[in-house]
């Protein structure tokens, strides 16, 4: 995939965008951290807040970054904006709806992977950006740009359970592929965490689907019926 812009134009776009939207980055970071705390609280209203916060971050990124700014150098950006806005609406619908979407923390690999992914998005990602020479305001920032926001979301999805987890995972997983291509071609090293997080979520969902299928098959076996 050949990108229709140069790395210099890409980084300058971030610098311009971050300057215009300041201090939205601080608000987005606070929203992400409060959302993580809400996951540990475990109350239904806290869960709704965390999911709604994801919707707000995706909406802001889709409209503010993709539609208003990124479209200046990439003609496909409005399409990206559409996907991000759809994802935002899905999160907001899950936040207010009566579905079974919930967060589940345990002493298992999936929980550990989710928390590590979230920590990467909030803390390690910006540090790697500084070491790469982007500067604090001249690179992707959490909550207002696609890649760190998606990494954070992939981590949150690893902690989620319920029928809506798979539909909510489609766009973030697709963006992990788009972000991988951009990371390799543009040399944004911190974005390499995106395909890794996407692969982990994809594997976790695959395992969950297999277990669910085996559970349903077991429930229909003669032995299972005898124990029911």
Shape: globular
Q: Which structural class is indicated by helix and strand composition? A: mainly alpha
Low-confidence stretches: 221-228
Distance between the termini: 54 Å
What is the overall pLDDT average?
A: 90
Largest sheet: 2 strands, antiparallel
Please state the CA-atom Rg, rounded to the nearest Å.
Answer: 19 Å
Fraction in beta strands: under 5%
Q: Spell the H/E element sequence.
A: HHHHEHHEHHH
Q: Total number of helical segments?
A: 9
Tell how many strands the DSSP assignment holds.
2
The strand order across the widest sheet is 1-2
> Helix fraction?
over 70%
Please characterize this protein's 3D structure:
Strands 1-2 form a two-stranded antiparallel ribbon. The protein is built from nine helices and two strands. The N and C termini lie far apart (54 Å). The longest helix is centred in the C-terminal third of the chain and has 27 residues, at 193-219. It has 228 residues and is mainly alpha-helical. The protein is globular and about 60 Å long.
Notable features of this structure?
two-stranded antiparallel sheet, 228 residues, 9 helices, globular, 2 strands, mainly alpha
Topology:
Elements lengths: L6 H15 L2 H18 L2 H26 L7 H20 L5 E2 L5 H23 L14 H14 E2 L3 H22 L6 H27 L2 H6 L1
Helix pairs in contact: 2-3, 3-4, 3-6, 5-6, 5-8, 6-7, 6-8, 7-8
């Amino acid at each position: 995939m050949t990108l229709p812009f140069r790395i210099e134009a890409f980084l300058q776009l971030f610098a311009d965008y971050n300057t215009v939207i300041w201090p939205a980055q601080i608000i987005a970071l606070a929203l992400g951290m409060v959302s993580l705390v809400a996951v540990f609280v475990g109350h239904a209203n806290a869960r709704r807040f965390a999911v709604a916060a994801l919707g707000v971050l995706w909406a802001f990124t889709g409209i503010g970054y993709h539609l208003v700014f990124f479209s200046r150098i990439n003609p496909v950006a409005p399409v990206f904006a559409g996907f991000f806005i759809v994802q935002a609406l899905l999160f907001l619908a899950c936040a207010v709806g009566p579905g079974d979407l919930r967060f589940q923390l345990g002493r298992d690999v999936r929980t550990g992977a989710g928390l590590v992914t979230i920590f990467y998005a909030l803390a390690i990602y910006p540090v790697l950006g500084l070491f790469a020479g982007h500067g604090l305001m001249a690179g992707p920032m959490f909550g207002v740009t696609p890649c760190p926001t998606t990494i954070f979301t992939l981590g949150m999805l690893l902690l989620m359970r319920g029928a809506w987890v798979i539909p909510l995972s489609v766009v973030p997983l697709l963006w992990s592929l788009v972000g991988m291509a951009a990371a390799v071609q543009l040399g944004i090293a911190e974005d390499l965490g995106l395909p890794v997080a996407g692969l982990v979520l994809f594997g976790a969902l695959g395992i969950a689907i297999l277990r669910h299928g085996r559970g349903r098959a077991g429930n229909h076996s003669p032995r299972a019926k005898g124990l029911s």
